[in-house]
Amino acid sequence: MIAQHENNVMASFMLYLDNKVCTKGKAFTNYASFFNSTRKEYSSIYGYGSPFRQFVMDESITNSPYIMTGAYLDGDPIHLGTSGFHSISHNKGHLYFTQEVTGENRLSGNFAVKDYNIYLSNDTEAEILFETKHHTNPKIIETAKALDPEVKTFPAIFIKSASSNNEPHSYGGWDNTIMDLRCVILSDSSFSLDAVCSILRDLSRTSVPFVQDELPFNSLGAYTGKAFNYTGIATGDGPWIDSVEISQNLGVDTYSENRSDVYSAFADFRLFDVRKPRE
How far apart, in whole angstroms, are the C-alpha atoms of residue 121 and residue 97? Predict the structure, then answer.
C-alpha cells in the first residue's frame, strides 16, 4: 500500500507542528551527555542511547540549537562512516554503529533536546492520559543511562486522526476534504502547557505545506549525513487550518495512579483541503 492523502496530511502536519513549536517557542535545550548501550541490535547494527528523547534535527530552526551530526569516542571527534559510526537517530536519541563499542561512557555528544516530543498515535485519549507510562526527560543529567528504543518521554504532543469526510465543493469533481485532528498534550508545568497551547491556538487560519521530497533518513529513521531542512522540503500546497479549539484541565490528577506533575490539554484542529479525490 502506497501513501494516500491522509498519510501525507498526518506526516506533513506533524512536521509543521514540530517546526512551529521549536521555532516560535524556542522550545529546546542544548545538552551534552554520554551514550551507552541499549543491549538491542538491528540486523548487526548496535544502538547506543542517551538519557533523552527527542533531539532537534531541523536545520531551519533558528536560535542556535545544537544539531547533532557527529559524536565523540573517548573524547575524540568521530564522523559518520568512521569507526563503524553508521547513523544518528535524532527522534530516539540514539547512535548506531556497525561494530560494538565496548565499555561504559566512551561515546558522548552535543545535541538540542526538544521541550516537546511529537508523536503520531492511534491510541485513545484514555490510553495516552491514564494507561501509558511516560518517562520525563531529565532536567539535570544524573546518570547516562540509555533510554530503551521503545520508551516515549514527555513533555509530548500526541497527534491522532479523529474523523474525516468529503463534502462537495464545486463543479468539476472538486470536494472539500475535512479532517479533524486531535493533539493530546502532556506537559510538566502549567506555564509550559499554557505556552504550547498558545502556539497551537495561533496556528488557526494558516496552511500546512505538504512535504514534497523524501525525508533524508535511512530505514531506521536515522540521519546518515544529508541534512534535514524543513522549510526546504515543505513547499507543496497543503490543507488549511480552519479552526483550533483548546481544552485544558482534563482532571488527570483525579486518577491516583497518575503522576501529579503531569499537566494535560487537548488541541482540536479542523483542516480543509479542496481537491479532486476521484482523480
Answer: 29
82: exposed, middle or buried (Cβ count in 10 Å: 0-12, 13-18, 19+)? exposed
Domains of the chain, residue spans: 5-275
Q: Half-sphere exposure (CA, 13 Å, Cβ side) for 235?
A: 7
- Neighbour tally for 174: CB within 10 Å: 12
d(CA 94, CA 212): 27
Pair 125, 137: CB distance under 8 Å = no
C-alpha angle with apex 161: 222 to 150, nearest 5 degrees?
35
Residue 177 to residue 171: CA distance in whole angstroms: 15
Taking the C-alpha atoms of residue 137 and residue 180, their distance in angstroms, rounded to an integer, is: 30
Classified as helix, coil or strand, 233 is helix
Give residue-wise pLDDT tens across range 146-177.
Answer: 777 778 888 999 999 999 999 999 999 999 99
The H-or-E segment that residue 76 falls in is strand 76-79
Residue 229 phi, psi dihedral angles, 5° rounding: -125, 105
Single-letter residue type at 74: D
Give dist(CA 98, CA 241) in Å, integer. 44
φ and ψ of 244, to 5 deg? -135, 125
Q: Write down the pTM of the prediction.
A: 0.90
CA–CA gap between residue 50 and residue 136 (Å, rounded) = 13
Helix axes 190-201 and 5-24, enclosed angle (nearest 10): 120
What is the distance between the alpha carbons of residues 100 and 245, in angstroms, rounded to a whole number?
49
The predicted-structure confidence for 225-254, as pLDDT tens digits, reads as follows 999 999 999 999 999 999 999 998 665 544
